[in-house]
Design brief:
The complex is a heterodimer of chains A (483) and B (200).
Chain A (H helix, E strand, L loop, with lengths): L23 E2 L7 E6 L17 E5 L4 H20 L5 H7 L2 E2 L9 H34 L22 H31 L3 H31 L5 H20 L4 H22 L2 H20 L4 H12 L8 E3 L12 H9 L4 H9 L6 H5 L20 E3 H16 L5 H25 L6 H28 L5
Parallel strand pairs in A: 1-4
Antiparallel strand pairs in A: 2-3, 5-6
Chain B lengths: L2 H23 L3 H9 L4 H4 L6 H32 L14 H29 L2 H17 L6 H22 L4 H8 L4 H7 L4
Classes of the chains: A mainly alpha (483), B mainly alpha (200).
């Protein structure tokens, strides 16, 4: 199916190639795009090692070097980190929080406007899944007791927070954070190493294992707890059938082909499951400090020249090779118009927004890295020769971003008074941060981390709402005073 | 304190706001962003450089709605969630219509914010300081009226009267007129008819 996308210029929007978890990239029309790397996160549960979600980042070819390198570095770092130990969940963050901008140095004016205009559309395309994920997490937290009960901690946070003094507790949470972050950094570096030495099969296998664990084990636990909460009995054969179908279809959708909406739904669900695991097993203060530290690390790793993520991006760019199927949420499809030879692949592209072959093929015609050429937008709606390719790229956001956004909102819903005002304030804060991040992406057109702004706003809103606004609004509501 | 109370009050308070959102905002991504970001829209305004006037009104409407929804939600959502739990309303002698009253009050506050937003923005645009002052004073008046909370009758009725007045004022400020209203109601509005016949 080919859509002549009348208003869609290739320049706007976000490149589907670039994303890693948390990486939003604006598409660069005509920039050959590399493949994304998978980042994998392993999370630990009390019983066993959990796998972490991976995010796919596609690197773009040389011209937007900064973007791509950062992205690649991000991905690689995350992947390496994950496969190495089974424990780092933080890798997600690394990969995730990249926001890549598409084309640097575009002439302003019309393109800028279009960028902003379509940027708005893509912002909304991201609002919906982020909102859905947060809704699932908050609904579960508020109804299923299991995820708010303290039942041990991950091995990455060995220090307990049941200490007699506040200072000790603070110290323990900082130490927990340091351990987590160092695990993440180590995994990232391992990922870079793995990618550099081309251990693709290893990466691929690890990715599959991680998805298996998430789709089957965590789903089983989740389903069990939900059934317990609502006191619904389910016999084992039915349970087995349900979990098997859910997991198998999920594996197929995520790693192979499937309808886009189903893919998106599965990605949202597994992000929510991971976020719930974090909410359950991270002690309170540690969780907040970790969120802050992850944002800082993300910022540093993406923007510093020596960051592992940047190195990853560089490597992938040098090789200009496709990356493994990503665990990146993709909100739209890629299709091409007017390229006869690409027709069959563009059909596939509808199903696989980030199918390596598809994307690569579709960019073949854009082989030239020179932006001005590619950027000459063909007349909208006028199918011309083969150079006329209109692609709609969706926005892609790494799953780690989903996870950490949901962790923040879920923690806000779970802790203390269980106040709805706080939860809603954090939710709005994250959406504002996401919006601003995308705006910055459109303005700067280079790789930007996607976590810092949202998490910062979220933390500020959480603490101020919980401590200042909540008592005030409670009193007002109980006396029915309206301001 | 049943599900019926919960859903009833929820829809009373947020139904019109949700309807406004779905029918006027949800289809346009830019408007959604306005809603989230509120007044920080200078950059977004650059997208429509040739239509400043309508976009300002649109911005006024959307930000009024956004403020209204946030204020209504913050005021009412904790009460709503309490209404799902166990309890007896007014067991200590308070009014048993606590939830209903809160719901109606929330509704009127949301609508008032929408109208105030439109009037306020227009007042700022045209430098009509009297409009700004009136908006401010009516807001204070409505809040002060809630202080007499046990006497729901006076409180609610006067607030609704103020809302209707503000609504009429906002309608004229936004460019409506009796004629356009008549056309709209009698389905003689050309644009509306064209819109309906678009698919043919």
């Amino acid at each position: 199916m080919i859509f002549p996308s009348r208003d869609f210029k290739v320049l706007s929007g976000f490149s589907s190639d670039l994303e890693a978890r948390g990486v939003l990239c604006s598409p660069e029309p005509g920039t050959p795009q590399g493949r994304a790397m998978l980042t994998f996160m392993a999370s630990d549960s009390e019983e066993e090692v959990c796998d972490e979600r991976t995010s796919l980042m596609s690197a773009e070819s040389p011209p937007p070097r900064c973007c791509q390198e950062a992205r690649q570095g991000l991905e690689d770092g995350e992947n390496a980190a994950q496969w190495r130990s089974q424990d780092s969940e933080e890798d997600l963050d690394d990969a995730d929080r990249y926001v890549c901008s598409g084309v640097p140095g575009q002439p302003l004016g019309l393109e800028e406007e279009l960028t902003l205009k379509y940027g708005a559309k893509h912002v909304i395309m991201l609002f919906v899944p982020v909102t859905l994920c947060m809704i699932v997490v908050v609904a579960t937290i508020k109804s299923v007791r299991f995820y708010t009960e303290k039942n041990g901690q991950l091995i990455y946070t060995p220090f307990t927070e049941d200490t007699p003094s506040v200072g000790q507790r603070l110290l323990n949470s900082v130490l927990n954070t340091l351990i987590m972050i160092s695990v993440i950094v180590a995994m990232t570096i391992f990922l870079v190493v793995l990618y550099k030495y081309r251990c693709y099969k290893f990466i691929h296998g690890w990715l599959i294992m991680s998805s298996l664990m998430l789709l089957f084990l965590f789903t089983y636990i989740y389903l069990g707890e939900v059934l317990k909460t609502y006191n619904v009995a389910m016999d084992y054969p039915t349970l087995f059938l349900t979990v098997w179908n859910f997991g198998a279809v999920g594996m197929v959708c995520i790693h192979w082909k499937g309808p886009l909406v189903l893919q998106q739904a599965y990605l949202i669900m597994i992000s929510a499951l991971m976020a719930l695991v974090f909410i359950k097993y991270l002690p309170e203060w540690s969780a907040w400090v970790i969120l802050g530290a992850i944002s800082v690390y993300d910022l540093v790793a993406v923007l510093c020249p020596k960051g592992p993520l940047r190195m990853l991006v560089e490597t992938a760019q040098e090789r200009n090779e496709p990356i493994f199927p990503a665990l990146i949420y993709s909100s739209a499809m890629v299709w091409t118009v007017g390229m006869a030879k690409l027709d069959p692949s563009s059909q596939g592209a509808l199903q696989l927004p980030y199918d390596p072959e598809m994307e690569e093929d579709s960019y073949d015609s854009f082989g030239e890295p020179s932006y001005p050429e590619v950027f000459e937008p063909p007349l909208p709606g006028s199918p011309e020769g083969e150079l006329e390719e209109e692609e709609e790229r969706g926005v892609k956001l790494g799953l780690g971003d989903f996870i950490f956004y949901s962790v923040l909102v879920g923690k806000a819903a779970a802790t203390g008074s269980g106040d709805w005002n706080t939860t809603l304030a954090c939710f709005v804060a994250i959406l504002i941060g996401l919006c601003l991040t995308l705006l910055l992406l459109a303005v700067f057109k280079k790789a930007l981390p996607a976590l810092p702004i949202s998490i910062t706003f979220g933390l500020i809103f959480y603490f101020s709402t919980d401590n200042l606004v909540r008592p005030f609004m409670d009193t007002l509501a109980s006396h029915q005073l309206y301001i | 304190m049943t599900a019926a109370v919960f859903f009833g009050c929820a829809f009373i308070a947020f139904g019109p706001a949700l309807a406004l959102y779905i029918f006027t905002i949800a289809t346009e991504p830019l408007r959604v962003i306005f809603l989230i970001i509120g007044k920080a829209s200078e950059g977004l305004k650059s997208i429509n450089p040739d239509e400043t006037a309508p976009s300002m009104r649109l911005l006024a409407y959307v930000s009024g709605l956004g403020f209204g929804i946030m204020s209504g939600v913050f005021a009412f959502v904790n009460t709503l969630s309490d209404s799902l739990g166990p309890g007896t309303v007014g067991i200590h002698g308070d009014s048993p219509q606590f939830f209903l009253n809160s719901a109606f009050m929330t509704l009127v506050i949301i609508l008032l914010h929408v109208f105030w937003g439109i009037i306020f923005f227009d007042g700022c645009e045209k430098k009509k300081w009297s409009a700004l002052l009136v908006v401010l004073l009516t807001h204070l008046l409505v809040s002060a009226l809630t202080f007499i909370s046990p006497h729901y009758g006076i409180n609610l009725v006067s607030t609704y009267i103020i809302m209707v007045l503000m609504g009429i004022w906002a309608f004229f400020v936004a460019g409506g007129s009796c004629r356009s209203l008549k056309f709209c109601l009698l389905c003689q509005d050309k644009d509306f008819l064209l819109f309906n016949q678009r698919s043919r």
